[in-house]
């Protein structure tokens, strides 16, 4: 396991930065366990980071993908202003504060600290996986109505965070110069816990994320994926194999409902192309756009990230999000090819691929715990290169 040293070779510049650094470590340690604790620590980290910057008269610095996120945030606020219920929409916009994790991580996790932060992510992910395995094996969290969820509020959130941690562990195995043994040690627990969530979108997401990492390293590694899948199916309990086969079942109710939600989303975008219906307003309008083949009478979101953003916040916001997606992915790919910190860049790239693949059947970008972990993971490789590496 990589040494968890946060000040060696790069001591904090002042007492406030030290407090902010410890708060960031706390965020990383708690965001897979308790969103309330992570958000409290985020407040501390942002405040100390801002005051420290102002006191040193430093300008805000961030990776290039942060500016599309700022544009996305501005368009989200504009959408809230034109919302069907502005008060509810502006309240929902509080999640935009999470975007401040990007400049905070970029500054406080710079240099060698970045690898230590990733080690914490892997360690907490392994602990969370063990909780899920115990829930399945001992507490009977073993059906679609009651699935392992770790210490988080929902199995979708839990499976999404596990998906990102699996990508991080794979990246360290493929590209790491240290900590590979620990990544190999925790990988079985991560994969078992993820499979026990019975969450098909996360399974597809991790397959795509890992495939991207294998392809970036050596395309011949892709042959490992079907071997792992087949072995897993042969050893898995009946409930899990049935869930796998349901991916290809056109009559599956949840799959049919997701198609119906996409059809409703298209109609909503046609009626509200510029500003959408407003944040947190899909559930309000869905009954009016529900198609006959829909299963549920209403839905809080459309289970598809691009469609949700377009219908809720408008096509300009979707364009900003796609700009973010392209900017982050291109930046991570360049770092993977040229940086000394390849395992961090690979982890970020795998996480982006997994998020996008899983996000086609689930609105994971709107999940606070998932979003926090994603933002930290894609920022770490840029922060690592502030120790004199490549410009970011």
Q: In angstroms, what separates the terminal alpha carbons?
A: 27 Å
Rg, please?
Answer: 21 Å
Task: Report the oligomer.
Answer: single chain
Total strands: the figure is: 0
Q: Roughly what is the average pLDDT, rounded to an integer?
A: 90
Strand content: under 5%
Low-confidence spans:
1-5, 388-392
Please estimate the helix content: 55-70%
Strand count, sense and closure of the main sheet?
none
- Report the total helices: 17
Order of helices and strands: HHHHHHHHHHHHHHHHH
Shape: globular
Structural class: mainly alpha
Tell me about this structure:
By secondary structure, this protein is mostly helical. The N terminus and C terminus are likely disordered.
Short description:
The chain is mainly α and about 400 residues long. It has helices at about 15-30, 35-55, 65-80, 85-90, 100-110, 115-135, 155-175, 180-195, 200-215, 225-235, 240-245, 255-270, 280-290, 305-315, 315-340, 340-360, 370-385.
Secondary-structure map:
Layout: H1 15-30, H2 35-55, H3 66-81, H4 86-92, H5 101-108, H6 113-137, H7 155-175, H8 180-196, H9 200-217, H10 224-235, H11 238-246, H12 253-271, H13 282-289, H14 305-313, H15 315-338, H16 342-358, H17 368-384
What keywords describe this structure?
392 residues; mainly alpha; 67% helix; disordered N terminus
């Amino acid at each position: 396991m990589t040494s968890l040293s946060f000040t060696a070779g790069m001591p904090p510049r002042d007492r406030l930065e030290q407090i902010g650094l410890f708060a960031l470590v706390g965020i990383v340690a708690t965001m897979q366990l308790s969103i309330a604790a992570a958000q409290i620590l985020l407040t501390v980290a942002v405040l100390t980071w801002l005051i420290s910057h102002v006191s040193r008269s430093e300008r805000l610095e961030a990776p290039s993908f942060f500016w599309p996120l700022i544009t996305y945030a501005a368009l989200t606020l504009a959408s809230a202003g034109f919302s069907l219920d502005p008060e509810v929409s502006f309240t929902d916009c509080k999640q935009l504060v999470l975007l401040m994790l990007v400049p905070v991580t970029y500054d406080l996790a710079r240099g060698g600290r970045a690898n230590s932060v990733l080690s914490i992510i892997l360690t907490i992910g392994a602990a969370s996986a063990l909780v899920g395995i115990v829930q399945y094996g001992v507490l009977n969290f073993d059906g679609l109505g009651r699935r392992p969820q770790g210490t988080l509020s929902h199995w979708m959130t839990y499976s999404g965070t596990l998906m990102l941690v699996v990508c991080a562990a794979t990246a360290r195995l493929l590209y790491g110069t240290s900590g590979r043994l620990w990544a190999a040690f925790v990988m079985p627990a991560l994969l078992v816990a993820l499979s026990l969530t019975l969450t098909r979108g996360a399974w597809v997401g991790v397959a795509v994320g890992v495939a991207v990492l294998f392809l970036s390293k050596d395309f011949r590694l892709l042959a490992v994926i079907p071997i792992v899948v087949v072995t897993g199916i042969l050893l898995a309990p009946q409930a899990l194999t049935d869930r796998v086969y349901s991916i290809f079942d056109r009559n599956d109710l949840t799959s049919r409902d997701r198609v119906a939600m996409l059809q409703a989303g298209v109609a909503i975008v046609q009626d509200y192309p510029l500003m959408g219906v407003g944040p947190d307003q899909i559930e309000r309008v869905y009954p009016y756009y529900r198609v006959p083949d829909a299963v549920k009478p209403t839905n809080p979101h459309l289970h598809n990230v691009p469609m949700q953003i377009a219908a809720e916040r408008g096509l300009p916001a979707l364009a900003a999000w796609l700009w973010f997606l392209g900017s982050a992915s291109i930046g991570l790919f360049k770092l993977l090819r040229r940086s000394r910190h390849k395992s961090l860049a690979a982890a970020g790239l795998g996480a982006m691929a997994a998020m996008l693949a899983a996000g086609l059947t689930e609105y994971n970008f709107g999940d606070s715990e998932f979003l926090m972990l994603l933002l930290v993971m894609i920022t770490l490789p840029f922060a690592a290169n502030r120790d004199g590496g490549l410009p970011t």
